Amino acid sequence: MRDERMERPDLRARDADLGWGDLPAGARNTITDVPGVRVGHTSLRPSSHIRTGVTAILPHGGNLFREKVPAAVAVMNGFGKSVGLMQVQELGELETPLLLTNTFGVAACTEALIRHALVEEPRIGRETSTVNPVVMECNDGYLNDIQALAVRPDDAAAAIQMASEDVVSGAVGAGTGMSCFGLKGGVGTSSRRLRIGDDHFHLGALVLANYGRAGDLRLPDGRRVPAGMGSPERGSVIVVIATDVPLEHRQLRRVAARAGAGIAWTGSFWGHGSGDLALAFSTAERRPHEPLEPILTRRVLAEAELDTLFRAAAETAAEAVMDALVAAEPMTGFRGHHRAALRDVLAAMPS
Question: Its family (predicted)?
């Protein structure tokens, strides 16, 4: 049974004065401020012990296998079970939607992406190359019975199908059962408007926040948030960065790495048992699967302009974490485990 209720949360990070940084936000303050990018969720809550789901991120609305986008990955701490990142690093391209889910849902999401690609391009694996599905994960096993293997390929396909410009934050999609700094975590997003020369661009981030020791959370004003007893830094954080600035693979890897600065601002030190990854892609160009010419001409940002993107990556990553925490409602799940909401903790803190 799939629960696809997508009620928009009451609060986002800036509603709670938890915006981060100085660069101006985009119109929605979401990753979909980057033109063409869409996000969809499937949330699974069929019983008290299942709290999980899938989040899909689509770089554009066309055939991604035939029109790839440049991409790169930065690994802050590699305690993770993602699929497809090796080829992204080697070839510098993304050719499927990105799926986020729980650790044991990776296989089901991988199958869904392969089937999705086969529908769009039946020659895959026969007359042309195979496809590289990209799935990233966090362990939601505290609130979700991860051994139930609740995520199925149809759930992932539904998240892709429901992708739109309207992004819901909080305990939805892949974020349904996630925890962050001992509180209820989830999915959050943020964006920045950039001016480079005479042109205007966007950079946006979507975060799956499932990391941090209880009591280590730091707010933008420097306050530390109490959340019970400290515990080892376990879990994971996934940051997906999108931009319409023309960047090549090496530059995208450098931008992705700056997401780590934003995650550190929130109070994380990327502990031994935490899988911390960032993937960045650019929508400025589409790379043909079968080029018509042997030599391609590409526009690329001048290196001296990268600092603007580095700052935007750090700011959006940090604010997206706040966005996830503010939007998430308190939750009780597997074995009666409970996570309080940041909004409730803030209400009880002295001003």
Answer: Belongs to the peptidase S58 family.
C-alpha span between 221 and 227 (Å, rounded): 18
φ, ψ for residue 218, nearest 5 deg: -115, 135
The answer to whether the CB of 210 falls within 8 A of the CB of 180 is: yes
pLDDT tens track for 154-189: 999 999 999 999 999 999 999 999 999 999 999 999
Catalytic residue, from 140, 216, 276, 323: name it: 276
Catalytic position from the list 155, 274, 282, 323: 274
**129 catalytic residue (yes or no):** no
Instruction: State pLDDT tens for residues 31-67.
Output: 999 999 999 999 999 999 999 999 999 999 999 999 9
CATH, range 13-343: 3.60.70.12
pLDDT tens sequence across 281-300: 999 999 999 999 999 899 99
Biggest CA-to-CA distance, the chain: 65
Does 274 qualify as catalytic in the annotation?
yes
Long-range contacts of 197-201 (CB under 8 A, 24+ apart): 197/305, 201/243, 201/244, 201/245
Our measurement of the distance from residue 263's CA atom to the centroid of its chain's CA atoms, rounded to an integer in Å, reads 13
Residue 224 bridge partners (DSSP): 218
Residue from 82, 236, 268, 282 carrying the catalytic annotation: 236
3-class secondary structure per residue, the chain: CCECCCCCCCCCHHHHCCCCCCCCCCCCCCHHHCCCCEEEEEEECCCCCCCEEEEEEECCCCCCCCEEEEEEEEEEEECCCCECHHHHHHHCEECCCEEEEEHHHHHHHHHHHHHHHHHHCCCECCCECCCCCEEEEECCCCCCCHHHCCCCHHHHHHHHHCCECCCCCECCHHHCCCEECCEECEEEEEEEEEEECCEEEEEEEEEEEECCCCCCCECCCCCECCCCCCCCCEEEEEEEEEECCCCCHHHHHHHHHHHHHHHHHCCCCCCCEEEEEEEEEECCCCEECCCCCCCCCCCCCCHHHHHHHHHHHHHHHHHHHHHHHHHCCCEECHHHCEECCHHHHHHHCCC
